[in-house]
Design brief:
3 strands, 6 helices, single chain, elongated, three-stranded antiparallel beta sheet, mainly alpha, Arc Repressor Mutant, subunit A, 2 domains
């Protein structure tokens, strides 16, 4: 599921927090406001929407809600890639993967090779 610009910015703040740390809307808003003019209530609405979409986990703490991402940045990007590839036939998937790897940087190709080696060794 593609994200809007503000949804992505909110997710980036949550992903950049220490693993397992829950953040309030106020904390996320404080991180976002130096780089963008966004109202507190808008951030609250976006975070609630991400919770309803299942992209973040929300829990009540007194009168406030706390949030954290449901998965890591890498896991969620992988889900997006898999969802996109699932929409195509096997041949189209293979062509897309070849094109993707063909456009990848040297560092990305090295990371793919390392990942494949780990999977083959498992």
């Amino acid at each position: 599921m593609p994200y809007g610009d503000l949804e992505r910015a909110v997710l980036d703040v949550l992903w950049d927090a220490e693993p397992g740390v829950w953040l309030t809307v106020r904390e996320v808003h404080a991180v976002l406001t130096p780089s963008r003019d966004v109202a507190y209530t808008t951030v609250m609405t976006v975070m609630d929407r991400l919770s309803r979409k299942g992209q973040v986990i929300q829990r009540k703490d007194g009168r406030a809600y706390l949030y954290r991402p449901r998965a890591s940045r890498g896991e969620m990007v992988a889900e997006l890639l898999n969802q996109t590839l699932d929409d195509f036939s096997t041949h189209d998937r293979q062509s897309a993967l070849v094109a993707f790897v063909g456009d990848a940087s040297v560092a990305d190709v090295a990371a793919l090779r390392d990942a494949l080696a780990r999977l083959e060794g498992a």
